Amino acid sequence: MSRPPGEARGLGKSIQASRLERGWSQTELAMRAGVSRPTISRVELGEEASTRTLHRLVEVLNLVLDVRKNDSPP
């Protein structure tokens, strides 16, 4: 799933903020979501992540992933 760099960073920061609000370490979130701790780190840094990984994270953190049509030309 390819997203513009700014969007990926913004999503990563939202996930990180939600994790920190709960007082969870990256290891705790990884365990709850069934992914590795390095995966959490990469997502929080705004690097690419699979749709499945993102779905697991937003589900565990009780977030909403809003998908919208991009009206901008490629």
Automatic annotation (TrEMBL):
| Entry superkingdom | Bacteria
Write down the Pfam families for this protein, in alphabetical order.
HTH_3
What GO annotations for molecular function exist for this entry?
Answer: DNA binding
Recorded hits in CDD domains, A to Z, give: HTH_XRE
Checking PROSITE patterns in the record gives: HTH_CROC1 (PS50943)
Give all residue intervals belonging to the HTH cro/C1-type domain: 15-67
Q: What is this protein called?
A: Transcriptional regulator
